[in-house]
Amino acid sequence: MTRKERTIEMLKAFEPKNGYHLAFSGGKDSQVLYHICEEAEVKFAAYFCRTSVDPPEVIEFIKTNYPNVKILRPKLTMYQLILKHKGLPSRNIRYCCGALKEYAGFGQLVITGIRSEESNSRKNRPEIEMDNHKNKIKLLFHPIKDWSELQIWDYLDGLGISANPLYDEGFGRIGCIGCPMATAKAKYIEFQKYPKHKKAYIKTIEKLMEMGRYTDFENAEDVFDWWISDIPKGEYMGNKKQEKINFV
C-alpha cells in the first residue's frame, strides 16, 4: 500500500459525521491535504486563520485558488497581542500561535498538514493526538505526517496544481512574517520584502519601551535587530560592546 493509499484509507476510517475541520495555511502541505480529502471523498471544511502578519500573496493565493476556504480573523492583531503580553514572542514563548492560528476547531476533529521531516518535535508527535487548551479540547489528526517533501511535490505535480508563488521566490515555508520559529536569514529576507511590517513591529517595540520593556537597548530598531537575529541577548549585547571598543 502506498502512502497516498494509506492516507486515503485513514481519512475514510476516521471521518466524523460532521466532517473534518481542515487547518489550511496556503502552503504546499495543506494543499495536498485539501486535494487528498477531495480524492478520498470525505466531508470536510477548510479554514485559514488570518494573523494580521500574513504575506499578502498568501491571502490572494487562497482567495483565487481555494475560494471555499473560510478565512477567519482573530480578536487581536499580532501587534495588539505583543502589547497585551508586554513582550515579543520567541521560540520558547510562542503565545502568538495559540491566539492567532490555533484557536479554531475546538470540539472537532482537526486535520493538519504537519510532517515528520519538518522538525524533530513534529517527528515525535503521534498521528492522532488531543489538544487541551484552557479546558477546550480538540482532536488533531495528521494524515500526511509520514510523507516526504518529494512526495508532496510529486502529488501536486501529478494533479497539475500550482503551489503558492512564494516558493518560487525562495521561501522555504509559508507562515507569518517574522515568525520566531523561522531562521534569522528567513526573517531578514521577509522584512526586506515587507518593510511596512518591519515599521509596524518597530512602532510596537517603541510602545513596549514606553511601558518600561527593553530599556537596556539603544532604541526600538536595536531591539528589532536583536529579535530577528536569533542571538541570545547577552551575546548580542556583548557583540555590540565589542564593536564599540574596536571602533574606538
Describe this structure in words.
The protein is an alpha/beta fold. The protein has two domains: 3-169, HUPs (Rossmann fold, 3-Layer(aba) Sandwich); 184-247, no CATH class. Helices cover 46% and strands 11% of the residues. The chain is built from eleven helices and six strands. A six-stranded mixed beta sheet has the order 3-2-1-4-6-5, covered by helices on one side. The chain is elongated.
Question: Strand sequence of the main sheet, in spatial order?
Answer: 3-2-1-4-6-5
Major sheet: size, sense and barrel closure? 6 strands, mixed
Principal-axes geometry comes out as: elongated
Proportion in helices: 40-55%
Please render the helix and strand layout as text.
Layout: H1 3-13, E1 20-23, H2 28-40, E2 44-49, H3 56-65, E3 70-72, H4 78-85, H5 95-100, E4 109-111, H6 120-123, E5 128-133, E6 136-141, H7 149-159, H8 184-193, H9 195-210, H10 220-229, H11 233-247
Parallel strand pairs: 1-2, 1-4, 2-3, 4-6
Antiparallel strand pairs: 5-6
List keywords for this structure.
single chain; 248 residues; alpha/beta; Rossmann fold; 2 domains; six-stranded mixed beta sheet; 11 helices; 6 strands; 46% helix; 11% strand; elongated
Question: In a few lines, what is going on in this structure?
Answer:
The protein has 248 residues and is α/β, with parallel strands linked by helices. The chain has helices spanning 3-13, 28-40, 56-65, 78-85, 95-100, 120-123, 149-159, 184-193, 195-210, 220-229, 233-247, and strands spanning 20-23, 44-49, 70-72, 109-111, 128-133, 136-141.
